[in-house]
Write a structure and sequence with these properties.
The protein has 135 residues and is an alpha/beta fold. α2 packs parallel to α6. The longest helix is centred in the first third of the chain and has 12 residues.
């Protein structure tokens, strides 16, 4: 998900369909996939409503529920515990560079999401599987 301006969040939260499709392709291939999001809160509206995270992902960590946010190192360990995976078995994709170092510190491979095609290509390289339909 990409946030450009937190005011108002419901209008500026724009999941990238091709990246979501790539995550779903990874999950269909048997890879555990999670959502790890710094929360914008759920009042006066829930920006996460309608995305059906619990159905689409194996693990969902919304920072608001843990009273901490990325890049707090502790929240990365919580995500690994929820995923039931060691850091070395994970790839973390985030659109904020400062959030990558704490993931790397616990052994997670990281990708800075800058544009969808490049992000997906890096995901494919790290996971060793194709994640989008061939043209």
């Amino acid at each position: 998900m990409t946030l450009k301006n937190p005011e108002p969040p419901s209008q500026d939260l724009h999941p990238q369909p091709s990246v979501i499709a790539a995550a779903q392709a990874a999950r269909a291939a048997g890879i555990r996939v999670g959502i790890f999001s710094n929360s914008l809160g759920t009042e006066p509206y829930d920006v996460y409503a309608g995305y059906d995270f619990d159905r689409l992902y194996d693990t969902v960590l919304i920072s608001e529920h843990y009273k901490m946010r990325k890049p707090d190192p502790e929240i990365y360990s919580i995500m690994l515990d929820l995923m039931e995976l060691p850091g070395e078995a994970c790839v973390f994709v985030d659109d904020t560079a400062r959030n990558l170092a704490p993931a790397e510190n616990v052994g997670i491979a990281t990708i800075l999401a800058e544009e969808p095609a490049g992000t997906i290509a890096r995901m494919e390289a790290l996971l060793g599987i194709p994640l989008h339909p061939k043209s």
